[in-house]
Write a structure and sequence with these properties.
Oligomer: single chain
Strand content: 15-25%
Radius of gyration: 22 Å
Number of strands: 11
Helix content: 40-55%
Largest sheet: 5 strands, mixed
Length: 277
C-alpha cells in the first residue's frame, strides 16, 4: 500500500463477476441502521452505542489475545459469544428478512381488520373487539407492536436474539482457525454462518458449525466437536477454500477479499456441500 493512500479491500459481487476496491468504512456501513426512532420524532442511540462498545471490546481482544494466539479468559470468551450473537442479529440481510416477515404478518392483520369491519356493518348482532385491538395476554402481540417490528425490526429483535443465542455458544467449543496462506479468509455482508449437514441450521444440533471470519488470517469456529478447540493452524488450500466457500455461499449480495484475487473455487458452480464434505 503506497504511503498516504487509504487502505482498501476488494468487494466482489456474489456471482464473482464484478469487483471494485473500496475502503472498509465505505462497505460495512449504513446511516442510522440501529437508531431507534421514537413516535415523538426523537432519536434513541442506545443500541448503536451498545454495539460500538461491544465492537471496541472485541477489537481489543483480537489485538491483544487472538493475533498473538494467547489463551482467552472465561470473561473474554463470554464477550466473544456476545459479539458472535450480535453479528447474527445485526446485518442488513437479517433486517430485510425480518421486515419481509413482519410486513406479511401486518398485511394479514390489516386484511382481517377490513373483513371484520365489513362484517360488523352488515351484521345484526354486535361483534367482538376488532382484531387490531390491543391484546394483553402473555405471549401475544397487537397491531401496533407488529407495525413496530415491520418498521424497525433490528431495534425490536436484536436484544432477544442475542440473549437467546449466547447460552448456546457458551456451551459449545470455540476454535480460532489460523492461516498464513494468502489471501487468507474472505468475509462478506453477512459473514456469520450457521451450517448443519442435512438440517435446517439450529444451535441445538450436535452437527452445527458456526463460522465467522475475524481477519484474513483468522476465522472463529464454534461447534460441538470435542477435538476442535483453541488455536488451529491450517495452510492447505483446499481446507481454506472450504471455509471461504461457505462464507461466499451464504453472503447476501457481496463478499470481500483483501486482494484482487480471482477466487478459484469455481464461484457459481461449486455447491456448499462440496465446501463442507
Amino acid at each position: 500500500m503506497p504511503k498516504g493512500q487509504t487502505p482498501y479491500v476488494w468487494k466482489f459481487s456474489k456471482d464473482g463477476k464484478t469487483s471494485q476496491n473500496k475502503a472498509p468504512k465505505n462497505i460495512f456501513c449504513e446511516s442510522e441502521m440501529y437508531t431507534i426512532h421514537r413516535s415523538d420524532g426523537s432519536r434513541d442511540l442506545k443500541l448503536e452505542q451498545a454495539l460500538s462498545h461491544l465492537e471496541s471490546r472485541f477489537a481489543r481482544i483480537r489485538r491483544d489475545k487472538l493475533s498473538s494466539k494467547s489463551p482467552l479468559s472465561g470473561e473474554e470468551k463470554i464477550l466473544i459469544c456476545h459479539f458472535v450473537a450480535a453479528m447474527r442479529a445485526r446485518t442488513a440481510a437479517q433486517r430485510n428478512h425480518q421486515k419481509k416477515h413482519w410486513g406479511e404478518v401486518l398485511l394479514m392483520m390489516d386484511s382481517l381488520a377490513e373483513q371484520w369491519l365489513g362484517a360488523s356493518k352488515t351484521s345484526s348482532k354486535p361483534l367482538s373487539n376488532s382484531p387490531n385491538a390491543a391484546i394483553s395476554n402473555k405471549g401475544t402481540i397487537n397491531h401496533e407492536q407488529v407495525q413496530e417490528l415491520a418498521n424497525q425490526p433490528l431495534q425490536q429483535t436484536m436484544g432477544p436474539m442475542v440473549r437467546a443465542q449466547v447460552p448456546h455458544y457458551m456451551s459449545m467449543n470455540m476454535a480460532i482457525i489460523c492461516t498464513e496462506r494468502k489471501p487468507g479468509f474472505i468475509t462478506s455482508d453477512d459473514p456469520l454462518v450457521w451450517y448443519a449437514p442435512d438440517k435446517v441450521p439450529g444451535l441445538i444440533y450436535d452437527t452445527i458449525e458456526v463460522t465467522l471470519p475475524i481477519s484474513p488470517r483468522q476465522l472463529l469456529f464454534i461447534s460441538r466437536k470435542d477435538n476442535l478447540e483453541g488455536y488451529v493452524d491450517i495452510n492447505e488450500k483446499i481446507e481454506i477454500d472450504r471455509l471461504n466457500l461457505r462464507t461466499w455461499y451464504f453472503c447476501d449480495k457481496y463478499f470481500v477479499v483483501n486482494e484482487n484475487t480471482k477466487m478459484d473455487f469455481r464461484l457459481g458452480k461449486t455447491t456448499v456441500d462440496d465446501a463442507t464434505s
